[in-house]
Structure formats: structure tokens, C-alpha cells
Design brief:
The complex is a heterodimer of chains A (115) and B (116).
Chain A: E1 3-5, E2 10-14, E3 19-21, E4 24-26, E5 32-39, E6 46-52, E7 60-61, E8 64-69, E9 74-79, E10 88-96, E11 103-105, E12 109-114
Parallel strand pairs in A: 2-12
Antiparallel strand pairs in A: 1-4, 3-9, 5-6, 5-10, 7-8, 8-9, 10-11, 10-12
Chain B: E1 4-7, E2 10-13, E3 19-25, E4 32-38, E5 44-51, E6 57-58, E7 67-73, E8 76-81, E9 90-96, E10 106-107, E11 111-115
Parallel strand pairs in B: 2-11
Antiparallel strand pairs in B: 1-3, 3-8, 4-5, 4-9, 5-6, 7-8, 9-10, 9-11
Classes of the chains: A mainly beta (115), B mainly beta (116).
């Protein structure tokens, strides 16, 4: 069975600094997708970035980049130039190809951006 | 990105009553939608997969008779919490994927249910 692990329950970063949120995964399926979502206190889940297991390059979306290390089964999210509005809960998730598009979520990391 | 709406955003009800939550894909058709439950400070747990025109697929441990799911059209899925009890109080959130693309799931804004 697939599993997502986020070992950082909470992180602090100063405004304008970069921060890395860790995510490791476990699956024997060769084809999968990895996602990061942001959940502010309002509760909505905001899609940030996607990485496919066969993608050759690390995904980037604006200030978000995904440090995909397939051999280590890690998919860390890097947020550059942190902003106060980045304070939120961040979830890593995995979807198995052929798994009915179901997502398995990690336990999340609470990020707080400070002045 | 694609837009998914949920209604209501908040609901407070008495124990024993039933509550219906709607999930709509506003700008795309979704043959499959997903229902999640999230308790405070915890992760999202998949409850069931809602399939248009057929029965929902429930995850292990989720009571299908308690959490009724109907996916009557390509843009609407409903979750009915029957005979709600205080332990059903939670944040319920749905998601859907537009056809094609990278199958990114887009989430609704969620519904907070409080059962008194």
C-alpha cells in the first residue's frame, strides 16, 4: 500500500526567506503522481504543484518548486521568497496511476511565516 | 484552475437529523468526485468515490448507509449524513478532476458540520 510521510509538524520561516517542506513516499507502483496542496485557516485546499513519476524535470510553479528525488522517494516542496500569506497547512499527496485517481495525503506541515 | 463549489459552507443540526451537502463542478464535467473528511488538526481521509450514474465506492470503515452519496449528473454529487450524531461533526470536503490534463484534483471550499 502507498504511504506519504511528512515529518515536520510545524515550520517557521522569516519573510522573504526560502523554506523546504519535506515529503517522502512509499509505493511499489512505477507510475504515480505527487501533489502539494495548501490549506489556509479557511479550510479550502489549494493546488500548488504536481510532479509525475516519469517527469524528467522538477516541477516549478512561480515561487513553488518540487525537489523530486526519485531514488530517495522524496518530493520536497520549496517555497522561495516567503510571504506572510504563505502561512498555512501544507499537504503532500500521492496518486497511483490506475488507482482510480484517489489521493493519499500526508499528515501535513503547519508553516508560519514571520516578519 | 477548475472551480468546485460546495453548499452549505456551514451547518449546525440536532442529533438524529440528516444533512445533505452538495458538491458541484462549475466549469467542467466530472464523472468522478471524491468525498473527504477532516478532523481538526488532522489530514484528509478519503471517505468514498462518487461515480456518475453508478454506486459510490466506499473506503474501508466508512458506513455506506450512514453516508449516502448520489452522483446524479456530471456536475453534481451529494453527500447525506443520515441520523447525524456529535461524532459526525467534522469538515467535509469534496474534490473533482477535469477530464484529461494531469488529473489534478480540485477541491471545494468544504463544509463544516456541527451536530449538537
Amino acid at each position: 500500500a502507498q504511504k506519504i510521510t511528512q515529518t515536520q509538524p510545524g515550520m517557521f520561516v522569516q519573510e522573504k526567506e526560502a523554506v523546504t517542506l519535506d515529503c517522502t513516499y512509499d509505493t511499489s507502483d512505477p507510475s504515480y503522481g505527487l501533489f502539494w496542496y495548501k490549506q489556509p485557516s479557511s479550510g479550502e485546499m489549494i493546488f500548488l504543484i504536481y510532479q509525475g513519476s516519469y517527469d524528467q524535470q522538477n516541477a516549478t510553479e512561480g515561487r513553488y518548486s518540487l525537489n523530486f528525488q526519485k531514488a530517495r522517494k522524496s518530493a520536497n516542496l520549496v517555497i522561495s521568497a516567503s510571504q506572510l500569506g504563505d502561512s498555512a497547512m501544507y499537504f503532500c499527496a500521492m496518486r497511483l496511476t490506475g488507482g482510480g485517481n484517489k489521493l493519499t495525503f500526508g499528515t501535513g506541515t503547519q508553516l508560519k511565516v514571520e516578519l | 484552475g477548475a472551480v468546485v463549489s460546495q453548499h452549505p459552507s456551514w451547518v449546525i443540526c440536532k442529533s438524529g437529523t440528516s444533512v445533505k451537502i452538495e458538491c458541484r463542478s462549475l466549469d467542467f464535467q466530472a464523472t468522478t468526485m471524491f468525498w473527504y473528511r477532516q478532523f481538526p488538526k488532522q489530514s484528509l481521509m478519503l471517505m468514498a468515490t462518487s461515480n456518475e450514474g453508478s454506486k459510490a465506492t466506499y473506503e474501508q470503515g466508512v458506513e455506506k448507509d450512514k453516508f449516502l452519496i448520489n452522483h446524479a449528473s456530471l456536475t453534481l454529487s451529494t453527500l447525506t449524513v443520515t441520523s447525524a450524531h456529535p461524532e459526525d461533526s467534522s469538515f467535509y470536503i469534496c474534490s473533482a478532476s477535469p477530464p484529461g490534463g494531469r488529473e489534478t484534483q480540485y477541491f471545494g471550499p468544504g463544509t463544516r458540520l456541527l451536530v449538537l
